[in-house]
Structures are given as structure tokens and as C-alpha cells.
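Work Package 4 report. The design task specified in the project plan requires that, given a folded chain encoded as C-alpha cells, an amino acid be chosen for each position. We show below one input record used in the internal validation round.
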């Protein structure tokens, strides 16, 4: 099950309150600060600490959230 468009429209980065974009069905990437939030078991993990872990990782190098 993927994130619904309705949910995606209301989700925002908890650090800077900017909208996030869905990347590869398994990550939410902030359009402003570039924090990256994993989606585990169809649940977005929108914790600043999680976003900070992958802030400097290029999108194409993000791991499968199921392996975290």
C-alpha cells in the first residue's frame, strides 16, 4: 500500500514545516532542508532525528527502509 495523495498533501517536514515529496515509494524528502524520512511498513517516520540521519545522502543512494 502506498501513501495516498491526500496524506502526501498534508505531510510536512517537522523541522522546517515545508512540504515533502515522495521518492521511490519509500522515502519522503523535504523540498527545503533536504531531510529524508523513511516509510516503514507503510508508515512515514516523520521524526527530525530520522530525517537528520540521511540529510547528506543522495536520493539515489538511500537504502531500503525495511533494512534499517
Amino acid at each position: 500500500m502506498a501513501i495516498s495523495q491526500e496524506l502526501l498533501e498534508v505531510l510536512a517536514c517537522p523541522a522546517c514545516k515545508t512540504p515533502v515529496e515522495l521518492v521511490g515509494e519509500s522515502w519522503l524528502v523535504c523540498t527545503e532542508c533536504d531531510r529524508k524520512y523513511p516509510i516503514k511498513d507503510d508508515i512515514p517516520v516523520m521524526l527530525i532525528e530520522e530525517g537528520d540521519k540521511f540529510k547528506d545522502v543522495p536520493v539515489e543512494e538511500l537504502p531500503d527502509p525495511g533494512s534499517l
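Strands lie at 20-23, 27-30, 36-40, 43-44. Validation will be extended to a larger panel in the next phase.
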